[in-house]
Amino acid sequence: MYNWLNALPKAELHMHLEGSLEPELMFQLAERNHIKLPWDSVEALRSAYDFNNLQEFLDIYYQGANVLQTEQDFYDLTWAYLQKCEEQNVIHVEPFFDPQTHTARGVSMEVAITGISEALGDARDLLGISSGLILSFLRHLSEEDAFHTLQQAMPFRDLFFAVGLDSSELGHPPSKFTNVFAKARAEGLLAVAHAGEEGPPEYVWEALDLLKVSRIDHGVRAWEDPRLMARLIEEQIPLTVCPLSNTKLRVYQNMSEHPILQMLEQGAMVTVNSDDPAYFGGYLTENFQALHTGLGMTQQQAQRLAENSLNARLAP
């Protein structure tokens, strides 16, 4: 089944570029930039990838991002991910990047977005992978900080097409960012947002009604609210679900508990994505394989999920 799933044409709509930083590349960039990591080997770093919740993961995630210093670093990070996409027949990607993770430590918006965009451009030309970049705000920071980040990004408006919202969900509802999302939409940007991962179904309602998003990232806890599910199905609002991430971060204790196939059979526009593949044990094909192994996903269901991903893309 793995080889068949790997050959299936797919799009990836929920993947954080910083979360594709494999330990080997992290150590390579640390050496290049003379940065001392708190782990003494690739093996020691991999052994740290045993998370009990989202916050434990984010602590390591932000520490790892410190090795990204130069335009070449961001290019190499993005290019490594895109090569994996070519191997797995991922023909369209809409990755996230978190500029505040970098500007807060003195790396400019220009350095990050230029390095990423050059790699995406090369992938279009050399690998045939189309793409659109999403600038994500960190929800544990203030809306004022998000406004400042949007202002910093506007000189590079042609390099990204949408804004998103990620990081620690609990205690940081989408409503916290209503004004900055309104400003982004006024600038012609589309909007997506993480909601309903650790946060409750109410966060999904807020993302739809207050942030006016075109797509919900994660959204699995919508399954707990029949009225919300009915709306998602009726309006065919895409959900970018990340199965391995959900089990790695204990949203579900076991893949057998995951509702994605039930949501699919009810008519929801669910898609499969890898989220932070370097940390969560696999890229897109591995997530499809996990659904086959853990939930008995059929080839027909896999085909529908892959078609959903291509139909749910937002980038022109």
> What is the CATH superfamily label?
Metal-dependent hydrolases
Strands side by side in the biggest sheet: 3-5-6-7-8-9-10
What is the overall shape?
globular
Radius of gyration: 18 Å
Average pLDDT metric: 96
Q: How many individual β-strands?
A: 10
- Here the CATH topology equals TIM Barrel
SS strand fraction: 5-15%
Q: Percent range for helical residues? A: 40-55%
What's the architecture, going by CATH?
Answer: Alpha-Beta Barrel
The structure class reads alpha/beta
Number of helices: 16
The CATH C-level class name: Alpha Beta
Low-confidence stretches: none
Active site: 197 (proton donor)
Catalytic activity: adenine + H2O + H(+) = hypoxanthine + NH4(+)
Site (Important for catalytic activity): 218
EC number: 3.5.4.2
Layout of SSEs?
Layout: H1 2-7, E1 10-12, H2 23-32, H3 42-47, H4 54-64, H5 71-87, E2 90-93, E3 96-97, H6 99-103, H7 109-126, E4 130-131, E5 134-138, H8 143-153, E6 162-166, H9 178-186, E7 190-195, H10 201-209, E8 215-218, H11 226-235, E9 239-241, H12 243-248, H13 260-266, E10 270-272, H14 277-280, H15 284-295, H16 299-311
Parallel strand pairs: 1-2, 2-4, 3-5, 5-6, 6-7, 7-8, 8-9, 9-10
Helix pairs in contact: 5-7, 8-9
Give a written overview of the molecule.
The chain has 316 residues and is α/β, with parallel strands linked by helices. The chain has a single domain (2-311), classed as TIM Barrel, CATH 3.20.20. It is built from 16 helices and ten strands. The protein has helices spanning 2-7, 23-32, 42-47, 54-64, 71-87, 99-103, 109-126, 143-153, 178-186, 201-209, 226-235, 243-248, 260-266, 277-280, 284-295, 299-311; strands at 10-12, 90-93, 96-97, 130-131, 134-138, 162-166, 190-195, 215-218, 239-241, 270-272. It has a seven-stranded parallel sheet. A three-stranded parallel sheet has the order 1-2-4. The chain is globular. The two termini are 32 Å apart. The model has no long low-confidence stretch (mean pLDDT 96).
